[in-house]
Amino acid sequence: MNNRFHTPKFMVKAALGAGLSVLTLGGILWLSSGPPIKGTSTQATDVNTASSELTATLKTDLMTSEYIAVGAVPTEIMPEAIPPSDIEKMVTVSSGDTLMSLLVTAGATRSEAHGAITALTDVYSPKKIRPGLDIALTFASPTSIETLDTTRDVGPLRAMQFQPSVERIVKVSTAEGENLRYIAEEIQRPLTMKMARSTNEINSSLYLAAQNVSVPNDIMIKLIRAYSFDVDFQREIQKGDRFEVVYEAYYDEDNNLARTGEMIYGNLTLSGDDLQLYRYTPSSGFTDYFNEKGQSAKKALMRTPVDGARLSSRFGKRKHPVLGYTKVHKGVDFAAPRGTPIYAAGDGVIVRANRFSSFGNYIKIRHHSGYQTAYAHLKGFAKGIKKSKRVRQGQVIGYIGTTGRSTGPHLHYEVLFNGRQVNPLGVKLPAGEKLKSVDLKKFKVEQKKINQMMNDLKKPAALAQVQPN
């Protein structure tokens, strides 16, 4: 008899001893909890010689008794098998990481990682992945039937997903029925743009007043930059002044703020005087902020080329904090945390960008009309900043530091006119563009529309009602 159809005798004896009926059909041992089959003996050990009457009786017993195939399943019914769960992992991109190294370190084989990255290139360049990005990975369980390598703590890589922007989700997953062929897809999140308005009284600083009414940081920076040509935020802001800002806000499907757009309008009420600014693009094509008379807020130079800094030392005579004696301070100092970005105060060409005497890391820019600006004690220079490089106003050129003769992180900022240092906070700067003729008429129309929109935003539930034109 073939071994795979052999019925062990100890099973038969044990079954008969327990008062169960025994029958083998096709080599499978059946046990019946019913009464012994007619014509059989409870002492019999070989049921293959049972009479044909057994077959008829078995048909009846099969209708009334429970039979279990010995060797196929235990005598107790096994519950339905639960498939092993996938394993989820979250990895964060750090400086120096490559997508290949991240996937392999997380548990993917090089073959799986290569397949996923190759598929990804159809919708997103792996070179664009930056430090700080979170990537969700899905692996099969190491106990799944797909896993052949028992030394791995995870099974094959099944999916990879990340969100490079608030509007975009990128996903790579295995093709249906295949383990190592990956397909990529891009999912666009629908965002709704609405106009938002914020206003508050200033009790200590403009920044805190804006923070207290949840003005997004990027909108706050745009407001400060727009006014940085005319307003000395250290001396001119007083308790009881106010600000107002209107900006584009993009909301997701759950009505959560996803991102912001442009600042459309700003107003600073300083000592009772309103300084209103409207965003407008004239025929020149250069978008700017203009006051109610059509005069650009932009000047040749910014008075404050750093955001959120504290004026720590003014222009003029002072007792030097390191040398200990009184000498003329030919610039102004702005104290800020190490690494805070520094902006080019105006369009121009870099004439120096290196280490320079007691100034430490130092940049000097030549502007038009005889003006130059200088920036000292920098931690370092922005990428690409070097001598003869042309820069635009507001471009990041370096970062706050404490190199050279310095007692703490700050920016020493100078404005030079015809080679002589002048007070950056007091010098009269050349005005920007003034709208005329057709541009002025079109600006007045746009100004009226913005004013009407602001009135609508002041009404209850305005945020949900006012839509952009």
UniProtKB/TrEMBL annotation:
Keywords: Hydrolase, Metal-binding, Metalloprotease, Protease, Zinc. It is an enzyme of class 3 (hydrolase). GO terms for molecular function: hydrolase activity. It comes from the Bacteria. It comes from Kiloniella antarctica. PANTHER family: CELL DIVISION PROTEIN YTFB, PEPTIDASE-RELATED. Its cofactor is Zn(2+). Its EC number is 3.4.24.-. Residues 328-424 form the M23ase beta-sheet core domain. This is M23 family metallopeptidase.
